[in-house]
Specification:
Elements lengths: L11 H80 L2 H12 L14 H10 L4
Length: about 130
């Protein structure tokens, strides 16, 4: 036997009820579409923000590394500047200039004899005596 057939009544109440139910169903569909669109947009915006944050973090890390290297270079240059300033002060002293001339250019004062002792020979002899090391 099949389903019993029930005839629907066509009156104002059932028409209003069907219209209300249809309106509620269409409202749910629109709400679901809006929520889906909202979540998709939120996901896209979140992805873009996270991507830019990661990119900025890596750029910041690179900049901090570069900053540390440049600060070290500044310290080295300041030391070099101090050494050069000290060298300028020393070069204004005649005794220091005479000492440099005697050491580097083998110039001597009258009656002075200069002997040069090579420094590489003792190191070479030590290497020949200790081959096991």
């Amino acid at each position: 036997m099949g389903k019993p057939r029930v005839t629907s009544l066509e009156n104002q109440y059932t028409a209003a009820h069907e219209k209300k139910e249809h309106h509620r169903q269409s409202h749910r569909k629109r709400l679901a579409r809006r929520l889906t669109a909202f979540f998709v947009m939120a996901a896209v915006v979140s992805g873009v923000l996270i991507s830019s944050m990661v990119t900025q973090a890596s750029v910041l890390e690179d900049k901090q590394t570069e900053k540390a290297q440049l600060e070290q270079k500044i310290v080295d240059l300041e030391k070099q500047e101090d050494n050069l300033r000290n060298e300028i002060v020393k070069l204004n002293d005649d005794e220091y200039i005479a000492k440099l001339a005697r050491r580097d250019y083998f110039l001597s004062e009258s009656g002075e004899i200069i002997f040069t002792i090579p420094e590489d020979q003792p190191a070479a002899k030590k290497e020949q005596n200790d081959p096991a090391e």
